[in-house]
Amino acid sequence: MSRLVFFSFYIAVSLVSLVSQGQSTILEGTIPGAENAEVRLMVYADQISYKLEILDRTYLSENGAYNFEIELQEINLVYLEIEYFTFALFLEPGGHYILQSDSISPDDVYRPYYNKDLLPAQLLTEPEPGLNKLINGFNVQYNEFTSTNFGGKYLNRQVNFINAFREEIIPIYEAYDHPFLLDYIRYKIASIELIVAPTKKPKLFSEYFENKPVKYNNPEYMDFFNAFFNQHITTNNKFIQRSDLISTINSQNKYPALFDSLGKDTLLRNEKIRELACLKTLKELYKNEAYSQSHILNFLKYVAKNSKFKVHAEIAENLYDELTHLQQSYPAPEFILPDLAGKPFALSMFKGKPVYLGFFTTWSYACLAEFELMDQLFHQYKNQITFISISLDKNKDVISRFKSEKSYNWTFLYNGNNFDLINDYRIKTFPLFVLIDKEGKVVQYPAYKPSEIISKELDKLLKEN
Q1: Which domains does the chain have, with CATH numbers?
Q2: Entry pTM
């Protein structure tokens, strides 16, 4: 092999390796007031299941500084999260970002986890032309346009306003020659066009989907896709009868039969679009009592194993995980936590008896109101059921004094700021209870509180066992 050929081969291999491994992206900054706290980069694994994953995590230094260096293959919308605060930004492969935050105070005050505050931060540095700056600027223009033209008005027959807005906006941003940005703008405008003219779906499909690549990682493309195919297969579809859909899912229980039947819809002839729409529909139907949940899960397993599209296999697996997570008859998430003396306990150690698991904080009056009734339940069922209370207070000494003063004798464990447990049990507010059977499987989530007469469920569970 000549040197020139060998060198060309080496370059080609290096480029393939670079693409497959991604490029190093740096995000750094400071968050005063939260020194030594954990800070995380979160990302949705996909925008069908919306399974939230940890991209990376670290701890703030003593002066509140952090530094992430991650490998990215494509642009990602990520969420920087700390305590009850969050900040969303787009990261590009190979980019260097500096984010500066105002001081925050993550003290023990009642803030539900589902309602995070916006981290008061400013992006000081990002790659040119400044994707985050441009998207934020467009969003301001978009919000002004929609509030001016559609606020309090019926949207029908106002497509001309949208066309005029598009013709004004697109040339401004085309100058930046950033495909992701242009797709973001195009599909965000398309979403309002869908609201204004829902009867023109074939025309919109031709314009925005037909013979075009699927933009899995662009949030506005996927928002438009989800809106476009929302109940598309199950509601007023002239090609697919509801009775046939029920029969295919409940009786045949074969994914290829379902996939082929959806091909009758002229908008679903493309196999990639069809399968993605099918996955979305399976998610919609899972909670519908007319359809077999076990068969839907079987379909997702099939796609995860056999799909010709790797990204669809991943979405199917994520959907399966999300749909079964904390559902009845599925394993409760394992954990290992210390008791108030520091001795570690795993949930699996309590197998053999049902477990009534509660999450609480001493600064939540709603939690404190349940403890006297919890004590009564403990004395009534302590030989038959294991009672566990997990504290999410920051100061373990506070929990120790509380337990000692009240003379509570069931198991108290300490979680502190352990995000994994909060995420695994989808803790949004307090108190939260979970009823688990003797094999470690979920019986009821969220379970009734002591004040909601959980004793009926406990008696029922003991009788079944």
Answers
A1: 3-127 (2.60.40.10), 134-228 (no CATH), 242-324 (no CATH), 336-464 (3.40.30.10)
A2: 0.90
